Amino acid sequence: MYSRRRSQKRTTIGIASQQAIRARALAVARGDHRPRPDEPKIWFTSMRSLAEVLSDDN
User: Fold this and answer.
1) Mean pLDDT, to the nearest integer, of 4-21?
2) Could you read off the pLDDT of 26-57 as tens digits, one per residue?
3) DSSP category for residue 31
4) Is the distance from CB of 57 to CB of 30 less than 8 angstroms?
5) Distance between CA atoms of 19 and 58, rounded to whole angstroms?
6) Cβ contact 41:12 at 8 Å
7) Coil, strand, or helix at residue 13?
8) What's the CA dihedral at 7, 8, 10, 11 to 10 degrees?
């Protein structure tokens, strides 16, 4: 028997204020900002909101 390794993708999560997230999204939509591959793709407004999403209840 042999085991096959699965390649795992790493997701980067960003924490920023609602205003900063919105400003960044609008800049991307306008073409003023081109996200780098290492920039977060998922954004939260606080560690608490991230913890709520990752909780066992969800």
Assistant:
1) 88
2) 999 999 999 999 999 999 999 999 999 998 88
3) T
4) no
5) 26
6) yes
7) strand
8) 130
Q: What is the value of pTM for the model shown?
A: 0.74
> What's the one-letter identity of residue 37?
P
6: which 2 tokens?
Answer: 């699965």
Kindly report the number of other CB atoms within 10 A of residue 27's CB atom.
13
Contact (Cβ atoms closer than 8 angstroms) between residue 24 and residue 33 = yes
CA atoms of 24 and 11, how far apart (whole Å): 18
The amino acid at 30: R
The torsion defined by the Cα of 33, 36, 38 and 41, in degrees rounded to 10, comes to: 50
Report whether 18 contacts 45 (CB < 8 A): yes
Q: How many helices (H) and strands (E) does the chain have?
A: 2, 2
